[in-house]
Design a protein that fits this description.
By secondary structure, the chain is an alpha+beta fold. Helices cover 36% and strands 20% of the residues. It has a 9-stranded mixed sheet with strand order 1-6-5-4-7-3-2-8-9. A hairpin with a 5-residue loop joins strand 10 and strand 11. Helix 10 packs antiparallel against helix 11, helix 10 packs parallel to helix 12 and helix 11 packs across helix 16. The protein is elongated. The N and C termini lie far apart (61 Å). Bound molecules: adenosine-5'-diphosphate and magnesium ion.
Length: 562
């Protein structure tokens, strides 16, 4: 027709398609999970928009997803009566990747299929996974509330381009027709499709329907009658003991838009002044955009089972921004907006509840599954550290979750908790000693450690950027103060014997003339020159004053142009 237009995919989409088809082939069934997940999201979005504008329903408020297949045409079709898309949305959503972190992702690809297959899972596969099983995909869609001549047809073979055209579409929503590749005929079976849905999409809230099949005269025939093939109930509203781990994991992949299993989750119904259900997951891997402050974070908010919004970042503090999942409130009004959320006392209470739940989950993991906690810390430890300065109310519990490198192991792995450290303190030691530096090696080889190594006193080796802020806000743990070994006139208290102290005072006296001379020649560059007992091998070192910023902090600020 006249308005048909051919457009090119964004370069990254082309790369993604190539990779996906080859590397995810062995896990091809996930395409259905992805398409059903999108259909469900589209229904959620429509239900939400219709709260404010009932006309969006076009007199049909029974949201559902339907699946069908045609053996002769060798097509599989997924349809929904959700929000649909207009032309611009189709071009953006099905022609580009809008996700933040996309550039980093593509720069990490190695060309080695095996390695890249792992990466692609982390990145997320989404709509484009249709091309794992199809060599032609036709999407017909119309946005809810638009005229019937505002339908859009998108078609592609998964090469470099797609065609787009305006069409007539009587019903709102989206239909995706997959023309299956040569070897995909096993998908043209009601039995097969039902079993994939049960495995991956049983938890989808909307009914997923197929035409009922019947045996007639020894042959299977497809009837005209619709039949729901999933549980079609909100998973989080069911009681915990009725939900299997596999169901929890499948639901995570839908809400978390993730390809991998989660590391852990917590599911609870909270009663009292605020009534809500929370189902919160810790992913197994940090998302690509964890450090991108513009990226969307947060969890899905529902009010009485009705989807309200994605990425409700007010529901958790930013140091828990990697957590995924849902909160379903019984108290909030259905017309709640982002602006209202920001000021809502109810949200504040929910946020406090969710925060405590996640911290509890992590404490539990740390106590009972060290290996899992190591994985967790490796992925999210640097974000958790931000919490010490951000969340005053939970500071001590967060401090308990922290892990650091230390002279105990002398490796850069962050494995030492403050409690471990305290458990190993020397007799007479009442402080937690640490050193900050801009690299692990600089910390480990610092001359400030010499006396500690000599006396066998453990020192935490802090070299992450955020560590400066951690020790800036965390001055004590379990009544033991945290002390920098690079600051002030190091007083080792009971760790030194009287003879040592006397000898030091005597030396300082004896060399007074020399230190004064050095001080004079460094006027304006140092405050004071002292005889030290910190060092055993090095002749001299720089120390900061007790309440000055550390040398490392000064370097960081200087590097940041301040
Ligand atoms: P994601 O679901 O993580 O956003 P996808 O690749 O699965 O990524 O989908 C890309 C976008 O395409 C979706 O965010 C949505 O805007 C749009 N989309 C996909 N499928 C549908 C659908 N059935 N109805 C409406 N919009 C859709
Ligand atoms: Mg999706």
């Amino acid at each position: 027709s006249t308005n048909r237009e051919t457009m090119g995919f964004q370069t990254e989409v082309k790369q993604l398609l190539q990779l996906m088809i080859h590397s995810l082939y062995s896990n091809r069934e996930i395409f259905l999970r992805e398409l059903v997940s999108n259909a469900s999201d589209a229904c959620d979005k429509l239900r939400f928009e219709a709260l404010h504008n009932d006309a969006m329903f076009e007199n049909d408020s029974e949201l559902q997803i339907s699946l069908s297949f045609d053996k002769d045409a060798r097509t599989l079709t997924i349809s929904d009566n959700g929000i649909g898309m207009n032309r611009d949305e189709v071009i953006n959503n099905l022609g580009t990747i809008a996700k933040s972190g996309t550039r980093e992702f593509f720069s990490k690809l190695s060309g080695d299929q095996q390695k890249d297959a792992g990466l692609i899972g982390q990145f997320g596969v989404g709509f484009y996974s249709a091309f794992i099983v199809a060599d032609k995909v036709v999407v017909t869609t119309r946005r809810a509330g638009e005229a019937t001549d505002q339908g859009v047809c998108w078609e592609s073979d998964g090469g470099g381009e797609f065609d787009i055209e305006m069409v007539e579409k009587a019903t709102r929503g989206t239909t995706i027709e997959l023309h299956l590749r040569e070897d995909q005929d096993d998908l043209l079976s009601g039995h097969k499709i039902r079993s994939i849905i049960r495995k991956y999409s049983d938890h989808i809230v909307q009914p997923i329907v197929m035409k009922k099949e019947e045996w007639k005269d020894g042959a299977q025939v497809i009837t005209e009658e619709d039949e729901t093939i999933n549980q079609a109930s909100a998973l989080w509203a069911r009681s915990k003991n009725e939900i299997s781990d596999d169901e929890y994991k499948a639901f995570y992949k839908h809400v978390g838009h993730d390809y991998e299993d989660p590391l852990a989750w917590t599911h609870a119904r909270v009663e009292g002044r605020q009534e809500y259900t929370q189902l919160l997951y810790v992913p197994a891997r940090a998302p690509f955009d964890m450090w991108d402050h513009k990226a969307q974070h947060g969890i899905k908010l529902y009010v009485k089972r009705v989807f309200i919004m994605d990425d409700a970042e007010q529901l958790l503090p930013s140091y828990l921004r990697f957590v995924r999942g849902i909160v379903d409130s019984n108290n909030l009004p259905l017309n709640v907006s982002r602006e209202i959320l920001q000021e809502s006392k109810d949200i504040k209470a929910i946020r406090e509840g969710c925060t405590k739940k996640v911290i509890g989950l992590l404490e539990d993991m740390a106590a009972n599954d060290a290996e899992k906690y190591t994985t967790f810390w490796g992925q999210f430890g640097q974000v958790i550290k931000e919490g010490v300065g951000q969340d005053f109310a939970n500071k001590d519990r967060i401090a308990g979750l922290l892990r650091f490198a230390s002279t105990h192991t002398d490796t850069s792995d962050e494995t030492v908790s403050l409690a471990d450290y305290i458990g190993r303190m020397k007799e007479g030691q009442d402080k937690i000693y640490f050193i900050t530096a801009d690299s692990f090696n600089a910390a480990k080889n610092s001359p400030h450690l010499e006396v500690f190594r000599k006396k066998g006193i453990e020192v935490l080796l802090l070299s992450a950027r955020v560590d400066e802020w951690v020790v800036g806000s965390l001055t004590e743990f379990k009544e033991k103060s945290l002390v920098s070994v690079a600051k002030g006139g190091l007083d080792l208290g009971a760790l030194e014997d009287e003879a040592e102290k006397e000898a030091q005072a005597k030396q300082a006296d004896e060399h007074k003339e020399l230190t004064e001379k050095i001080e004079a020649s460094l006027t304006g560059r140092v405050k004071e020159v002292r005889i030290t007992h910190r060092l055993t091998d090095s002749p001299a070192c720089l120390v900061a004053d007790e309440d000055d910023m550390s040398g490392n902090m000064a370097r960081m600020l200087k590097a940041a142009g301040q």
